[in-house]
């Protein structure tokens, strides 16, 4: 106990002494966080606090055996496993430090996160089996993927929550403190010493990072802390059956872990880049509610302390009780996030609307397949008259009241075609009036491709109560694209082509009617 407290005190003292030094160095060498629309601070602040934490952690573990000659301190030896763990920590810390000085792309950082996790994996930190709910699951070939996911999750969880003064450092301190207690209860004094050193390093930095902060963690600090917690939690579970013990850091860091999982999903739902930063995180949502920055930090501190306390109960619960606990915790989390407006885009009406759109676009709906068949018929038209007859069929399908296709002069050979016009023939006085008021849909659009205008398409439809007009505009766009592609294909042909004479005599009623209509308007076939 004394050795563990001593290591904590040494790490705390070193962090208190080193952090101001690196604050000045950060300002001098440009490792600063500039204010912008996403940030809450209004002046440049050094973002290399992670360097002080990293050095305080390593130095405290290095000098502790000199001060404490106990059997517990004798456990601090640099074996092959520890060497690989430190290599991974150095990779995570190093890429974060480079990003603090020279901004890197998310892909590069993600690759190095995987490399850091890979180093730990080859050092023996592997989630090879999970024992939970009475089941002992062997991961087999999935062990590597699960281990990498574990590391990447924690690295990014700490990084994403680092948006307010003292928030990430405070939450990780509470998680480390819980893991110290748990490790001591389990008699795993090596893990207790490592977490104690990490907790002391964080607490010393928190003195300068709490609101108003004079230095930030930076990516170097958040990546190192996320990696360290992920690595030490696996180390502490290796000698026992992995399961409940791995859940403890997940529950203790519940706020950032939830935020990390939900953020990409939220961005995907609203159509944004899944990995671009934004101001939609939990702490941002609380600030939007009118809560001050300092109070938001205290609120999330309180939630984290409660989660840490609850996580300690997990080691005393049976499997079925753990399952019930997790269900209740998940339900409470969903209610809390819903209050924050996190699920404003995931309501039942929006989900059903999205599913309807999806089934329509994918062709699962029969109505879409039927209209697609009409599009295919239009696309196979061999002349403009055949095309027009099939356009009429499509117009009837989507219950249009009138359609006009006005070919552009000179596009189809030397002849100038008068407009093709069709109406449903069912317009009475009420329908005619509907087409001139707010209950009508009127669309006029060019049929053009690659700078060539082939025709103008005009459509009209009365909107009647009880009709399902959800996909009318989508069908109109499908129709426009099909007509455009077909007219582009037909535009290179002349009306004087001999086969058009045969088309006039063809028994296809639609084509024959189109010819007869144009003959009545004064257009005659060349002899």
Task: Please characterize this protein's 3D structure.
The protein is an alpha+beta fold and 527 residues long. It folds into two domains: 2-346, no CATH class; 364-520, Beta-Lactamase (2-Layer Sandwich), CATH 3.30.450. Helix content is 62%, strand content 8%. It contains 20 helices and eight strands. It has helices at 2-29, 49-67, 80-101, 106-122, 143-161, 167-185, 189-209, 218-238, 244-252, 254-269, 282-288, 293-313, 319-339, 348-362, 366-379, 384-397, 429-434, 472-490, 498-505, 509-520; strands spanning 32-33, 45-46, 129-132, 135-138, 402-407, 420-423, 440-449, 452-462. It has a four-stranded antiparallel beta sheet with strand order 6-5-8-7, covered by helices on one side. A two-stranded antiparallel ribbon has the order 1-2. Helix 1 runs antiparallel to helix 2 (49-67) and helix 6 (167-185) runs parallel beside helix 8 (218-238). It is elongated.
**Beta strand count:** 8
Number of helices: 20
Number of domains: 2
Strand content: 5-15%
Topology:
Layout (H helix, E strand, L loop, with lengths): L1 H28 L2 E2 L11 E2 L2 H19 L12 H22 L4 H17 L6 E4 L2 E4 L4 H19 L5 H19 L3 H21 L8 H21 L5 H9 L1 H16 L12 H7 L4 H21 L5 H21 L8 H15 L3 H14 L4 H14 L4 E6 L12 E4 L5 H6 L5 E10 L2 E11 L9 H19 L7 H8 L3 H12 L7
Antiparallel strand pairs: 1-2, 3-4, 5-6, 5-8, 7-8
Helix pairs in contact: 1-2, 1-7, 2-7, 2-8, 3-4, 3-8, 4-5, 5-8, 5-10, 6-7, 6-8, 6-12, 7-8, 9-12, 15-16, 15-18, 16-18, 16-20
What keyword list fits this structure?
527 residues, alpha+beta, Beta-Lactamase, four-stranded antiparallel β-sheet, 20 helices, 62% helix, disordered C terminus
